[in-house]
Design a protein that fits this description.
Blueprint lengths: L2 H4 L16 E2 L4 E12 L2 E6 L4 E17 L10 E8 L5 E8 L10 E4 L7 E11 L4 E7 L3 E7 L5 E5 L11 E8 L5 E8 L9
Parallel strand pairs: 4-13, 6-10, 6-11
Antiparallel strand pairs: 1-2, 2-3, 2-12, 3-4, 4-11, 5-6, 5-8, 7-8, 8-9, 9-10, 12-13
């Protein structure tokens, strides 16, 4: 499996129920965050960040990606980013995490939508129109045919891009981010897994 085919397409999910063990995104779409308890293909068992257990059945064509650190200083005009952020007291937005998309995935999930990394957070996927370094690093993202959003990026913000990973990286204790669908009977299935490897965990 090469890197291009294993890259995880993030930011395409909409809606959120912040604080639930497995946060619902649409009527049947979920995000599962946590650590691996067990993995025996195709069943992945995850202890969620709330302490509950989620069992996800991976579809036959499932894909995997890891993450690696990137530098906020390397972000430039024209890059395509996914940024989870929250509103600040001064009316702006502050980043919680930043994903730098490879060029091949530019345009993925473009737009601004509710997110569930923290209460009242949002995910904005867009192209960098401007980068400023006044009172810290900040970027202006453009999306949806001309809408813009300026987001400050504190120095402590995790900044990552995608990296190669294999199913062997899904081992007990590994941190994972899984997009899944829930059937009417409660069964979870997924075609995508992002796993922490080489000491870097998915900050999404």
């Amino acid at each position: 499996m090469n890197l291009k085919t294993s890259l995880i397409v993030l930011g395409t999910l909409a809606g959120a129920f912040a604080g639930s063990p497995v946060a619902a995104q649409a009527a049947d779409m979920l995000r599962v965050r946590g650590t691996v308890v067990g993995f025996e293909t195709p069943m992945l068992t995850v202890k969620t960040r709330q302490g509950d257990t989620a069992v996800v059945k991976l579809n036959q064509d499932w894909k995997i990606s890891g993450v690696e650190n990137a530098s906020v200083k390397d972000i430039k005009q024209g890059d395509f980013l996914g940024i989870a952020s929250v509103s600040k007291a001064d009316g702006g937005s502050g980043a919680l995490e930043v994903v730098v998309f490879p060029a091949a995935l530019k345009g993925t999930g473009e737009g601004d939508r509710p997110w569930d990394l923290q209460p009242n957070s949002r995910m904005t996927n867009g192209t960098v129109a401007d980068v400023t370094d006044v009172n810290g690093r900040a970027v202006t993202l453009t999306y949806d045919n001309g809408q813009t959003k300026k987001i400050s990026i504190p120095d402590s913000t995790p900044v990552v891009t995608f990296a190669a990973a294999t199913p062997d990286d899904i081992k007990p204790g590994a941190t994972v981010f899984v997009t899944a669908q829930r059937a009417a009977d409660g069964t979870l299935t997924s075609s995508r897994v992002v796993v922490g490897n080489h000491g870097v965990v998915p900050p999404m």
